[in-house]
Each structure stands twice: as structure tokens, then as C-alpha cells.
Amino acid sequence: MSPQDENPPAPASGNSASSRRAARENSEQDERRVQEATETADGELPPPAAEATAPVPEPETDPESDPQERSLLYRVMTGSALVAFLSVVLSLILGGILIAVTDPEVARASSYFFTRPLDTLSAAWSAASNAYVALFQGSVINVRGTSFTSVIYPLTQTLTVATPLICAGLGVALAFRAGLFNIGAQGQILIGATFAAWVGFTLHLPAGVHLLLVVLAGMVGGAVWAGLVGVLKARTGAHEVILTIMFNYIATNLVLYFLSTPAFQRPGSTNPISPQLDSTAVYPLLLGSAFRLHWGFVVAVVATVFVWWLLNRSTVGFELRAVGANASAARTAGISVSRGYILAMAIAGALAGLAGVAQVSGTEQVLTSGVAASFGFDAITVALLGRSSPWGTFAAGVLFGAFRAGGVTMQASTGTSIDIVLVVQSLIVLFIAAPPLVRALFRLPVPGAESTGKRGKKNKGTPTRTPASTGAAA
Amino acid sequence: MSTATTATTAGTPGTGIGGTGTASVRSWKNPIILSVVALVSLVVFALGAPGNSVTFRLSQSSDAIVLPSIVVSAPIVGWSCALAMLALAAIAVLLTRAAVRTPTWLIAVFALLFLVAFLTWVVGSARTPNVALYGLLAGSVTLAVPLIFGSLSGVLCERSGVVNIAIEGQLLFGAFAAAVAGSLSGSAFIGLLAAAVAGVLVSLVLAIFSIRYLVNQVIVGVVLNVLVSGLTGFLFSAVLSEDSQRWNSPPRLPVIRIPILADIPVIGPILFEQTIVGYLMYIAVAVVYVALYHSRWGLRTRAVGEHPKAADTLGVNVNRMRFMNVLLAGVVAGIGGAFFTLVAVSGFGRDMTAGQGYIALAALIFGRWNPIGAFFAALLFGFATNLSNVLSLLGTPVPDQFLRMLPYVVTVFAVAGLVGRSRAPGASGIPYIKG
């Protein structure tokens, strides 16, 4: 959730090669640590590094003093991975209940509930399980497929849908690490898509160069749109939440306006739709013509690596995180907070612009006002679920991509509205944001509790370090 | 001299929505913005003025008291307004050079001149240079009703130190509950009651997660909006649209007309010909204002929002105070949501609040966290929205899309501090941990 959640920015954490580079930047003082890092390059990782790379930040208590801390089961049970898993399960259960309750078969069976209660229950079970099976088959593996292609087709579909989610989610996550709540991914995607599409159907260039320019134009479009928010925030102190929300609406209307001008509107059409992008301007398909998965997904992976590098291994990233962690302290340390805000928003916008490119140059190949679908808003939940870390966001993007891709199949085959996906997604984020609630519901031990007697209900009100710091991050 | 005060008050990190995070000196901002706007007005409204005259109608011919229409010449109004604005901008420049902050009245007069010039220009350039001013104003108030309820909900939350992004969700759930309960019971008043309960439910989740589990309040708000949108959308397609006669045909709230007062031209219908939701809006603004500034509860609320530790030291239960305020905010926003399904149209539609909750949030900031301020800010947004509706009917040269952008552009200007700096309650957005 917050910058503090992540591993400490100590240069000696992480693996050897990159930590050496990072350490070198810090010159003299860190020479000793550079040696440490190089010494451990082929041997074991030193204890602090091991702690930093563990999925859960260890509590301050000394691992040696408490035998419980070393038990594997205890670690698993207090880990955030389990909380994340249980949050997903809990949300799916709640979603299933919702599906069952609104199912007409269940309603019919419940009219004679007291004579044959099992009928209601089995109807409820089949309603929920049918929906979820359809969801699974639409997003992971189609077990009824006849050929290999049709079996794995859903999986590629998930990755296709996940591509814009990952890109835009990275944008939201990056801004969040700099202490900015970027609700404006939707508008940034739209403007990025507009720029990219214009280059895509107006300029006629050779293959390769054209696509490169399209991608660049999309990034510039998003960066300009978001950078504007950064400038306003830095110069006037206006809150970015309101600004980005308003910029979303402005972007939607702006795109609609563009699509009514001769420069954008498809010749001979009165609808707000652009001409088709040139074949040189679209992403090539990644796995052949049987699948819709395009090279945009590879770009998304590269973007994830880039954001990881930027945040964890670069000076700029360190400055952004410092601004996000404590703007006053960063200012005192000589970091320009205004520059941080503008830069963070611009990069976030460029990433959202990539999502726009993935849409116009990948799946849609034309510009409409609905080209961004609701990816910009889903990106927020993706970033939150990914705890604002690049790879977490990537994973969350794939998960939500699966929900979305499967939701379409589910709606088509069982008639369950795709809106249930929104419900499940938001429930997941809510539960993951409140680990004490999930622990209390499943009676899990609280990390750092001294004895087993203190676990569960009694401790759920205890402030943990994580949420306390998130309040200040917004 | 504003520099010193700006630096000290803006020094606190901007955690609340709209909180100013920079300590920069912005003394030249107002004169520069005013000058630019004045010059643009000169070019567009004066030099580009249509040659015809413009008619503003003040009353219908069927009204009890018929006022004559105002007929003005577009070039004369354009030129006089633009020149007056230039003069005001010059005064602002001179004042700033003398290190005097641009006074609020100057900006207010400037904004009014701009509005008059803009209206005259835009209506004058339309195909039919004739507009019903009474309808424009009445429509603005109607459109502003949910905004005002929403921003009051925000005032209650933020004044006690909880950021409420979930206004949108409260409105939407209120609208949904009002539609369903109203249809099932056949009574609009039960629908209204259900809307309040629904608003409280959303508030309850917000309160539990942000106060009890200390989850970031902005996150909870954003996620709650998605949750409510998904939940109502799902139930709409699974239940409501299956049998809309049974589930989604609520009766409308009757318009209550106060006999003689409603005959007053222009303001009569606005103030005295409303549904119960409209009257409740006026009452709510007054009650929240009085309670917040002139009651023990209000003092405690503000104390908890500004400096929870001090309030705690004096024996106020900070988190209970916040919990109560958030729940109360749910009641207010829920009633505002009922407006959509019991007053505006009869029946619920998917995502029918269409971002009004976010505009309400902007109105709250524009109104500087003050109920009265939020009321007028919401009215301005209602006016901007209604103006864009009316103008697109009149057929103006300005593209439709730009007119629809108007409320959002106004919001950006508003939160960017055109009307002076607005400061969030000190502890807004920060969970309170005792000890």
C-alpha cells in the first residue's frame, strides 16, 4: 500500500550485481557495504538481505528470542501471502452468495425451503459454481476445447486483457509510491490512445518506425495529460485526486470532440469513430493469428521491469519514494518535491499511455471514445492489490485480466452479469487492505503477538505498522 | 501581507483532499490569471461579439406576476464587461505590487462580469438569441440538489477527520435503495427512508475500515465506489431489469407548492415549489451550518478533525466522534441519492449518479469545507451543467463537447486556487491512534 511497505532502500539488500551498482552511486561511505555485497555474491546472503527479500517484513522482535518466530507454520499463517489468498477466497465466496441469492432457480426452490431445504442449497450451489466454472474456463483453460489452440485460448485472452491493466496499473502504482493518488489513468489512457491513433492513421511510414512512433506518441500523450496534473499540484497545491478525476471527464469530452473533427473522424462516417490504423502501426501478434495476444504484452513486461528498476535501483526512483514517504523530510534533504510530483505524474501518464497504445494498436485498432473501457479505473484496484510494487501490480493485472476475460464468457454462458467481477475485485482489495479483519475472520495468529492466547479477536484493533503509515501517504 | 500566513499554514503536509502541500509564495497568481481572463474576454466577448440583441426572459406568460424580459445589445454588454474586467485586473496588479492580497470581493465581481459577458456572448451567437433565465436558474438548483447533499456529507466527514471519497457510492446506493424500497412498498417516503439507510450502510463500511482497521481512507473510498457500482449494476441486471414493474418503478415524490410564496418571480419556484428532498436540502444546509459552528457537537467535531490529540486530552472520544459523523454523513448523502430515483426520474439506471459524487467532493473543497460555501459551490456546478444543457438546445457555435466540459474545467480552476487558498481540516485523512 505505502512506500514503507516495501523493502528498505538499503543498497546492500537485493541481489549482488544491481546492489553493487546502486552502492557505487553512494560513493565513499558505502565502500564497506560494497565489499560486503561483493563478498556475498557467490556465497550465502547476509541475514539482513535475507530479511529484506522475505515476503513479509519481519517484526522488530529478534527472531532468536522467540521460538515461535522460527516455526514455518507460524510464518505462513502470519504472512501477507496467506492473507492475500484468503482475501481472494473470501471475496469469491461472497460473490458466489450474491450470485446464488439472485438466481431465479434458487428463488423458486426457496419458496418451499422448509419442506425441502436441500433443493435450495443445491440450486444455490449450482448457480454459483456454474458461474465460477464459466469464469475459470473463460480465463484459464477451456477443458471442453477440442484442440490445443482452443484449450489455451482463454489463457492468452487473459493476458491480452491484462496488458492495458498492467501498464495503467504500473502508472497508478508509481504515482502512489511518490505519494500521489492517481485516479486519472482513464483520461491518460484516452489521451495517449488519441495521440497514438493519430500517428497510426495519419502518418504513413515504413513498418517498425511507424509502430515505434505510435508507441512514443501514446506515451507522450499520457505524459502530457498527467504531467499537467503534476504541474498544477506542484504549483498551486490543488489535490491530485480531484484534478485527475476532472481531467478524466475533460479527456472523455475532448476525445469526443476530436472524433467529430475531420482530422480524426472516419471519412464518410457520422459516428465518432476514427479510421483504421495502418497495418504498419499495429502490434504484431505474438502467437500467430489463432490468438489475439499481441506484442503489447511484451511491452507491458518490459514496462514492469523498467518500473522495478526505476523505483528500486535508480536515483530518480529513490527521490520519488522519498517524496512519497515524507515530503517534508525529502525537501529538507534537498530533493525538489515539485519536480518529484511532476516527474512522477509524467511517468505515470506515459505508462497509462502505453495502455492506450495497447488498446488502439493492439486489440481495437481504431479510436473511439470507449477505447479505454474501464481500464483506468480497474488500474487503481490493480495497483492497490499489487501493493504498488511493480511485480505485484503485474500479478494483480493478470488476475484482474482473468476476471475480465472470464467474466465475458460467464455472462455469455450462464447469464451472470459481468458486474459481479467488479464486486469480487473491490472486495478483494478491501480485505487485503485490512489484514487484521481477515485474520480475525479466520482466527489466524497476529504477527508479533507474544503468545497464542493473544491472537484473534483481541488483537484486531491493534494498529499495525502498515496501515498507520498508509494514512499519511495519500 | 499574505506571504507569511501562506507559508505557515501551508507548511502542514497536505493529507486531506484539497490540502495544499506546497509552501510556495503565490502572490502573483491571482493578478496573472485575472489579466489573462480579462484579455481573452476582450478578444472573444467584445471584439467577437455578435451584432444582435439578446433576450433574457424572467417569467412565463402564465405566471401570476409577469416580469418584462431583459433585452440587451450583445456588443455593448461585451465591451463594457470586458473593459470593467480589465480595470479590475489592473487594480489587482497594482494591489499586488503594493503587497496587498487580491480581495475576495474583487474576484467575485470579476467572476460575475465574466459570467454576464459569457452568457450574453454565447446566447447572442446562438441560433435563437433568447433564453429563459428563470428556467436556467431553477434547473441549476434542481441539478445541484444531489451535489449539495453529497458535499454536506463530505463536510461532516472531513470536518471530523475522515476523507470521504465514497460520496459517489453513497449517492448511488441511496438511489438504488430508494428505487427498490419505493417500488416494493409503493411509497416514496419509505423509499426516502431506505435511501438514508443505504447511505449509512456505505458509511458503516467506510467507518469500520478507515477508523477501526486504519486502512487508508482514500483507498476505502475509491474501492467502495467500485463496490457499490458493481453491486448495484449486478443487482440491476439480475433482479431489477428482470421484473422492472415490481422492482424498479418507484412512485415519485410529490412537488409541494407553498401557495403565495411560490408566485414570487424567479426565486419563487426555486425556494417554494420543491419536493420534500428539495426542502430537506435547505434545512440540511442550515442545520449542519448551525450545528457545526454553534453547538457543542460541532465544536467537538471540528476539534477532532483539526487536532485529535488535543480533543482526546480534553476527554472527547475521537474515534467514536468520527464514527458518528461518518454515519450521519451517510444519512445525508443517502437522501441526496434518493433525488435521482424519486425526483429526477422514476427508476434506477446503471451508474446513474455519473460522477456527481466526485463533483460534490470538488464543491466541498471549492466551498472551503464550510456548509454554506459548499452550498454555493454546488449551485455553481449545477448552473454550469444546466447552462451546458440549455445552450446545446439553443444551438451555439461552441461545440457541444466543450460545453459539457464546462463544469469540470470550472472545478479545475476552482481547486487550483482561483478563489484563494483553501485549507483542509488539519487531521483530515490521518487515522487517530490513541496513545
Automatic annotation (TrEMBL), chain B:
Q: Where is the protein situated, by its record's location annotation?
A: Cell membrane
Query: Which InterPro entries does its entry note?
Result: ABC_transp_permease (IPR001851)
- Keyword Transmembrane attached: yes
**Where do transmembrane segments lie in this chain?**
32-50, 70-93, 105-125, 131-149, 161-182, 188-211, 218-241, 279-299, 323-345, 402-420
Entry GO terms, CC: plasma membrane
Give the main location: membrane
Q: How does it sit in the membrane?
A: Multi-pass membrane protein
Domain of life of the organism encoding this protein: Bacteria
Q: Which UniProt keywords apply?
A: Cell membrane, Membrane, Transmembrane, Transmembrane helix
| Gene Ontology terms for molecular function | transmembrane transporter activity
What is the protein name stated in its UniProt record? ABC transporter permease
